[in-house]
Design goal:
mainly beta; Porin; about 10% helix
Length: about 150
């Protein structure tokens, strides 16, 4: 629980420090990991658009419980808006890093993603995000799909 609070404070501090665009928060749920095994997760993320030129920066965290073990995950992503003409919505591609920590093991890896966001109403948008991950410690490739709302805070 303490790690979750630290992640949320760091997320808020990063957003305030780098905010040149809009701050946003995400509750990305239903992350269905298909490879190497099926799992459902819930992630809380926050970030800011156009933090470094056109790049959006996002940090997040999640707490999972699998097979009696608690897993804490922290991640950071840089998202680049793709100059593709989509009628409604926004398409971006991103790269990121993550750290998984359990009581007995810490692993890290890289993430590659493509996200599509559709405005729903006002500051609310729906985001779909297929993600490819590579865990360096396990030398394992993973594929997941995350869906959830994004709320723009200003």
């Amino acid at each position: 629980m303490r790690l979750k609070k630290v992640a949320m404070v760091l997320s808020a501090a990063l957003g305030v420090a780098l905010a040149q665009g809009q701050l946003f928060g995400e509750v990305l749920f239903g992350q269905a990991s298909f490879i190497p095994n099926f799992a459902l997760l819930v992630s809380l993320r926050g970030g800011t658009t156009q933090a470094l030129g056109p790049l959006d920066l996002r940090v997040g965290g999640q707490v999972d419980s699998a097979a009696g073990t608690t897993i804490f995950t922290l991640n950071a992503d840089a998202l680049y808006p793709l100059p593709v003409d989509v009628q409604t919505g926004r398409l971006d591609a991103g790269l990121g890093v993550y750290v998984n920590a359990t009581p007995s093991l810490t692993t890290f890896g890289l993430r590659g993603l493509v996200g599509y966001e559709v405005p729903v109403q006002g500051a609310l948008a729906l985001r779909v995000e297929p993600t490819l991950t590579y865990d360096f410690n396990a030398q394992q490739l993973g594929l997941g799909l995350t869906v959830g709302p994004r709320i723009y805070l200003r």
